[in-house]
Amino acid sequence: MKSFAELGLNAELLKAVDQLGFSEPTPVQEEVIPRLIKLEDDMVGLSQTGTGKTAAFGLPLIQMLDKKQTKTQVLILSPTRELCVQVTKDLQTYARYQPEVKIVAVYGGASIITQSRQLQRGAHIIVATPGRLLAFINSGEVNIKTIRAVVLDEADEMLQMGFQDDLNAILAATPETKKTILFSATMPREVVNIAKKYMKDPLEITIGQRNQGIENVRHIYYLVAAKNRYQTLKRIADSNPDIYAIIFCRTRVETREVAEKLIGDGYSADALHGELSQGQRDFVMSKFRRRKLQLLVATDVAARGLDVKDLSHVINYNLPDDIASYTHRSGRTGRAGKEGISVAIVHLREKYKIKQIERQLKRKFELGRIPTGQEICQQQMLRYLEDLKNRKIDATYIEPFFPAILESLEPLEREELIKRFVLANFAQLLDYYKNAPDLNEKEREGKSRYERNNERKSGDSRYGAGAKGRDRKDRDHKDRDFKDKDRGVQFTRFHINVGRKDGVNPSRLIGEINDAAGKGVRIQVGRIEVKGDSCLLEAESRFEKDIINTFSNLQINGRKVAARVSSESEKMTPRSRAKSPHPIRKKYAAKKRK
User: Fold this and answer.
1) For 144-153, how does the pLDDT look when each residue is reduced to its tens digit (9 = 90+)?
2) DSSP per residue over 470-507, as a string?
3) What are the chain's domains?
């Protein structure tokens, strides 16, 4: 392992690094710093969040600045305001002994006038979110035609957030002579396309393996019934009293609901989602960073770019729709050599997703056992008593009262006194978990019905959420809205912009519709037709808004899902031609013709 001095950094940077307490470079810093000081090649760095990437590109780029020039020489693009602010603070810390270096943060949600004034005073390095930077470029207040290097930090996150067009516009305004440095935790197709379009023979530096999870993270999943998700979450929290975790939910509505339940049940929790104002968001994050909150319930979009140290757990209340999102979630724990735990609360019909993630990450998941109520009570009581035994006390304050206390408690036997003491502290917990059921779902041997359905490559599916294999007569669907004559149910046909190429199948669509339904509600589903890059499905008209909202909040394999009511022209393939006949049916039909 080399020292920072051996990497070629100047005296001012080494002094700043030493004050930060960095004893030796991380693997990504050791690989990147010597190469970036020379700034001879484009570079792709594949490394997880929390491995020291900011110092890896920040230190050498500060060193290569021409401080006599006031023009912008380095541009760093970040996906979110939080990451933009964090990177700026880190760079300013590295440059603390070089006061002539000017670093300006440009991001949405803050005063554009203040940022404009800072830019007018000059900026050697601009750290920016794509949207706000593009606004400054279009107004002529920022000139990036002279930059020597552009860094795309968390490139996969930026593309997942829909910044593709903004990135194209910004990169098109940069000079051809600049060097492009791209850092990403995963390498989806969109990131590969950016590299091909804007980089020349990039040097690739990979720490670990592509799309691999953090080595220090344990991956655990619990199999539960869908109705027991929240109770399982509570038991995870109750069995880990020192938990410091982000809980990921799929939608804003679910995020709010879970956070409100946790707060109502006395947990130190709050929510982070897209409907919060920037002020509210900053307030919640400030509390969480200061550990005034133990549990932060968030959507993927709201949590992007967050840099929170020492998380003990990441909890997937719902599994994400693409593996890259799981990698980003789990990468928020297990940093700086510490062990972290990534937990997934999984319904039986989602079991196949665990296998997909295992194959992609090349990591084995542990099947966890949800503790019983009795185990949680015993664990908490013994932990409290152990802390009590080891606690240092100053008995001088109680000495004047001790004779009276002994006299008062004298009638009580030792065991009776212990019982009363424990009950005084744990009566509420014991009452809550009295006769609590076992929440663990048993794994079935072989493949479940959900897994078998998921492996279907494509097709025209006639089963629905709650249909339970009921045989239905074929119906003629001439109109967008129609009725099931057997039940009098009104159906609407929906178009969804993802299909077989994105790994979508009827089982997955039905699972999402079931989640849209909410507790105790079953949405009836008609025909489903999965095409190469889109789907058509029929579902109850009265749930039209719920279905569109549910699908429109998804991302599948890095692609943002869009759902709408289909037009009159979008017909479904007749069942007779939906897929080729089964070979046995072919043979039977041929015999019949003879």
Assistant:
1) 988 999 999 8
2) ---------SSEEEETTTTEEEEEEEES--GGGT--HH
3) 5-206 (3.40.50.300), 217-370 (3.40.50.300), 374-432 (no CATH), 456-578 (3.30.70.330)
